[in-house]
């Protein structure tokens, strides 16, 4: 999908959101105040919870449509409370989600923010995040899988159960115990749909194939969110933010070297093999260690030296993607 095609659309009752940092310019032309502002009135003492979440989301690069979706969910919960105060019917909606994206595109980070928002809005009683993968759900004999899955759901009650690489549950076919895990999840999604939120996550192509093998599954996820890969510009912004948080900065040589490397690796690496933000984080952590060794050997510890990452500190030759 081209990165300039940021859209929100509905199919079969699902809200499908294409996150897109490159849509920011078009979005800002419509609303210069904020790239994800829904014009909620800034009334003193109101919407404090939303403001806190917005402040946390502002640290995320791109994801404008996700930020907008979070605000829409907040608005729906808030208005439901106002309807309840007036004795009107309050709609109940399951908030299970599906995140589709390559490694390092922010899926787990967003899941944590969702849990925090839902806890603060009293949608979830705890708001904690339980991360799981196939091995945490699938057992070794008949009946074992269902019990493991039920135990995991029990731990998740009041919060979010986040299952990464969810498509792996369908890899073994009909006779694989992964199908038992899926069936158990589906049952509890219905029975306990307001007691926990299930988020299935994984690579886009594999998740689409997973859904094709389980045609009844998609309808159970009201929110389907795509996390596109970051552009080189996005990755540079992520790098600069990480550096700033750690109180470091690149000199000009290092900045050019990093950009040229990211441009090359994006061209040479298959999207599913590139870990996006995680890749950048690994580079930064490695460069900080290299800088520390350089300063130790040169015995230079003034403020400027301690702050600066130089080109020679960026050893990118064997960096894992």
Automatic annotation (TrEMBL):
Ranges that cross the membrane: none
Molecular-function GO term, any one: ATP binding
Keyword terms of this UniProt record: ATP-binding, Nucleotide-binding
Lineage: Bacteria, Bacillati, Bacillota, Bacilli, Bacillales
Highest taxon listed in the record's lineage: Bacteria
Family: Belongs to the CbxX/CfxQ family.
Protein name: Stage V sporulation protein K
Entry-linked InterPro entries: AAA+_ATPase, AAA_lid_6, ATPase_AAA_core, CbxX/CfxQ, CbxX/CfxQ_RuBisCO_ESX, P-loop_NTPase, Spore_V_K
PANTHER family: AAA-TYPE ATPASE FAMILY PROTEIN / ANKYRIN REPEAT FAMILY PROTEIN, AAA-TYPE ATPASE FAMILY PROTEIN _ ANKYRIN REPEAT FAMILY PROTEIN
Domain AAA+ ATPase intervals: 93-231
